[in-house]
């Protein structure tokens, strides 16, 4: 379970204040995948970052009874000078996962060949994405945070990525941001709509999508 307790986040841009989370109180239940919907700029990514702990709220707090992932596929925390293997082992030690088992999983999943043993700075964008997704799937979490992640590579690799991701979802919850309504319907059971700093939770994904579409039409 993840509980948002009077969560507020305000930015000041060019002297103007913008509030993306306005005294939000909400609960994301255990083992439920929730679609996070909202217009561009509504603050969905900011909310995910606060839940992940990589961004501080202006006020309020986030409480959790389980483990929460970083945004799936995020590669920004990898050390450019370390190899793919070294970065993988470093993450394994942080989260208390067996380093060899995780290294073996990521090496086989990411399909980087000998590049797995080369510095991360030498990787192409596709190789970085494959490593990041593999590391994300190698650590078991109670809730996965997903922010517009799409599998990379050829059709076979995308199919493998989806298969592993959905297997993780059988035993965990998720908070998912995506512009693909089809992906949200396939992945999520519930939904939450962020609009003008307020979050409305729906136990039915279809009700959340309908509410979001109404907001979109009102915005023109």
Tell me about this structure.
By secondary structure, the protein is of the alpha/beta class. 37% of the residues lie in helices and 28% in strands. The protein is built from seven helices and nine strands; from the N terminus they run E-E-E-H-E-E-H-H-H-E-H-E-H-E-E-H. The strands form two sheets. Strands 5-6-7-3-8-9 form a six-stranded mixed beta sheet, with helices on both faces. A three-stranded antiparallel beta sheet has the order 2-1-4, with helices on one face. A hairpin with a 2-residue loop joins strand 8 (190-195) and strand 9. The longest helix has 15 residues, at 155-169.
Characterize the biggest β-sheet. Answer: 6 strands, mixed
Distance between the termini: 35 Å
| Average pLDDT number | 92
> What is the tally of helical segments?
7
> Order of strands in the sheet with the most strands?
5-6-7-3-8-9
Low-confidence stretches: none
Please indicate the percent range of residues in DSSP E strands (runs of 2 or more).
25-35%
Shape: globular
Oligomer: single chain
Helix content percent band: 25-40%
- Rg, rounded, reads 18 Å
Structural class: alpha/beta
Spell out the helices and strands N to C. EEEHEEHHHEHEHEEH
Tally of extended strands? 9
Brief synopsis:
The chain is an alpha/beta fold and 220 residues long. The chain has helices spanning 44-52, 84-94, 99-110, 125-138, 155-169, 181-187, 205-218, and strands spanning 2-13, 16-28, 33-37, 59-64, 68-71, 143-147, 173-177, 190-195, 198-202.
